[in-house]
Structure formats: C-alpha cells, structure tokens
Amino acid sequence: MDGHEVSLKQFQDYKIIMIVNVASACGTIDEIKQFLNQIWVNFPVFNKIDVNGENASPLFQWLRNNSECSESDFPFGGAVGSFLANTYKKYYLGIDPNTNNIPWNFAKFVVYDQGTKIKYFNPKVNPENIEPFIQQILGIQQSHNKDEI
C-alpha cells in the first residue's frame, strides 16, 4: 500500500493466489492501513485501484478478460452458446456481459497453473465455499470434518 507497482512474478512459486477487490468504500489509504493494523492482516494488501471502466488497472482487465465463462464453456455454439454464456455471466456471476465489469466489492479471482487459469467467484460466494475448489487444485483430500483440515 505504498504506491509502488508490484510484479506478479513474486508470486510465481505459489500454486494458487486469490485476488479480491475489497476497498471501494473503505476510506482513505491511511484509514485502510490503520484498520488493517488493528486486525493483524497477514497477506499482501495493495493500493485502491479501478477494477472496471476505461481506467481499470491492467491486472483487473487481465483477470476479467481471461477468467472462466465464454461461449466455449457451453455445449452449444453460435448464438445459443453466446446467449447462455451471457446469461450465466449476468445472473450467476454478476458480470455485465457487455463490458465484463465485475461487482465492485468482494469479487474473487483464483489464479492457478502458473497464471494460465483463472476462476472467478461472485461476491456472494462465501470464501468457505471456495475451499473445495482450492483443495482440488492442490490435490488435498477433502475432509468432511472441518477439525481435520
């Protein structure tokens, strides 16, 4: 949160990274830093940036344009596939199919396979519900008892 650019190369050895937009209404950078210091955050936090529109950061442009859900995700081609993909984006993922804009807060992107795959999760998806997906990518046997994890 010091205003310097950060290269994603520093995360290249991670099997998975999760990128979440959280700060659209959280106050100034100083207020955010003060809050984060109070709750002992133990993950990287970066400056506020635009995630949508013509001023969107290159990172969020890349995430939005390369995450799942295109016509090829459906068994139908052409207009039917396009309609299904756009309907899925709009009503399930909360993404505007005309602009690829994401909801402002708590949209989550899981980046894996050395940055070649991106899975988008709607802001309404609880992070606990993402855990099975992450465990699958990491090859971790899922436990039915949360105390065993």
UniProtKB/TrEMBL annotation:
Keyword Oxidoreductase (UniProt): yes
Entries under InterPro entries matching the protein: Glutathione_peroxidase (IPR000889), Thioredoxin-like_sf (IPR036249)
Keywords tagged on the record: Oxidoreductase, Peroxidase
Top-rank lineage group of the source organism: Eukaryota
Organism in which the protein naturally occurs: Pseudocohnilembus persalinus (Ciliate)
Protein name stated in the entry: Thioredoxin-like fold
Keyword Oxidoreductase: yes
Listed PROSITE patterns: GLUTATHIONE_PEROXID_3
Family: Belongs to the glutathione peroxidase family.
Gene Ontology biological process terms, A to Z: response to oxidative stress
